[in-house]
Amino acid sequence: MYYSVLIVDNDTSALEKSIQELSGRGLNTIACSTFESACEKLKEDGTIHVILSEWSLPQSRKNKKRIEGTDIFKKFMALRNEVNIFIYTSITDIKQLSTGGITDGYFFKEDNVYGDIFNKITAAVDEKKSAPFYEKLVQYARKSKDSWHTPGHASGNSVKNSPYVKDYFEFFGENLFKSDVSVSVPELDSLLHPEGVIKEAQELAARAFNARYTYFVTNGTSTANKILIQTLLKPGDAILLDRNCHKSAHYGVIIAGAEPIYLMPSVNNKYGIFGPIPKKSIIKAMDDALAQNKKLKAIILTNCTYDGLIYDIEDIVKEAHKRNIKVIVDEAWFGYANFHREFYPTAMAAGADYATQSTHKTMSAFSQASMIHVNDPDFEDIQDFFMENYNMHASTSPQYPMIASLDVARKQMAMEGYSLLSRVFKLSDELKSSINSLSKFRVLEQQDLISDEIKDDNVRVDKTKITIDISKSGLSSKEIEHILVNKHNIQIEKTTFNTISILLTIGATYSRINRLYLALESIENQSGNRKKDSGSSKIIKDFKLALSPIKYRPRFAFYADSEETALRNSLNRVSTMMVTPYPPGIPLLVPGQLITQEIINALVMYRDYGVEIHGLNNGLVQVMPEEEEERLKKEGFSILS
Fold this sequence. Notes:
The protein has 641 residues and is an alpha/beta fold. The protein is 39% helix and 16% strand. Its cofactor is pyridoxal 5'-phosphate.
């Protein structure tokens, strides 16, 4: 048995009897007599999946003051959101035992129903550790049914004996081909109208991720964001969004025909890192938009940021809800956070209405496998419309192994996510210590990453994301990335002008972190004493993220006729495309935005330093002809007069 039951009771005789009875039935049991000792066990032992607790407990052995009921259970949940909690008490008046639905059951001590306790505990854990869709898919694949339907490879028969492509079959393997089926198999359910095992898998995911509903998405969080923006916003509605948000949010605004109200992220100019939006800026922007009678319906925030900076999300959600604004949180890089106290509260726990997660980025799902989590209390009113948008974007031929990977990823995190993440934190600390022992590389600390404008915003740092200052190496970040890939066979996540960033996922190992350290040590030893300036300091010093006015709603600018013009001649024209330098990957222009001299200067600077710029082709940008501007003004699609 791979899990344990924590029994918490300060009645010594009752505690001993419970241990004896449940251990005798084969359960691994752990005993605690105080609230404090129970919390310590939850922190240190990731195998605990069930708590059997008295209603009232002493705080500690020294502090006999008691803590009761919901206060106990909420604190248990804040430590380990995935545990099942059962009340085990001498209190019979059930009206005294209201917990708001966070507990999984009740037992009266004097009933002595240890058989029932055992059955309900094992049933709760068995459900959590099941993966209904994956198990059904495996069962189906093993039947080797004759396939008279799509896909065309017919369980791999079209390729496995081919003299030209049988290596394709051999590389991916028989099981992948047998499990790559289609909606022509009713017993495997339909992602677009789930009523069977997919519905069951999504319901288990909702419980695991603390949501009311969860929907599987097989074409990434890019699509998840677009589905939500298109669902919540109608043409003319407004949304607050970070200028540094993922481009899918910008595209969602185009699709919805909404008005974007862009907010400036905090900027760390020393390292070229863009962080959370200052809290006071978010609140002011909400109030200003409402004062201007804009139809502000939603705000979308990225949490955590690409560099691991975590918002004080609960406070922001409360402020938005005071103003009847829905909150979408893009947790593409933060999906695992629900399974460790270090990250509490996540979007769902903080009361956000929606969260999107790239289950493939930070958990064990296949690429493109993502989830949408829903906690919106008004969701039932728009659920049908949501499903229409979901169906509009989803494929009618989803990849079934990808769906299975979502089911398995949820199971793994529900059963061992806490232990896996605790291990990653330990690896992170050891890697940081190793890198900091070098003279030319240093892991950035919280105070390095957070700029002055957000220092009072209670911003935290995700330890699974490590940013390394390489400015003393005499090499550019791109040169170091090249050496790591080509000499040491190490691929990092991203670079800025003077940093490299790595992700420690739940798949991190001691071998990998030590190989990275040895590679950096080798680069340091071979870099000599050169103090070459890569130009990064000048780029960062001169760069300004410009927020020039949005003249026309992006949807109508995007679909307007356009013409090419040289960047140097584009002053006061309106862009019809997104123009984005990589790095940092932030659009300097979006459709409908006025091109200012500040933006032209920034793009020229990036181009001069050889930065890749999407949307700038041979020095040309796409702009709106004057007659198109006049047309949009007449048709009422102008935001500025």
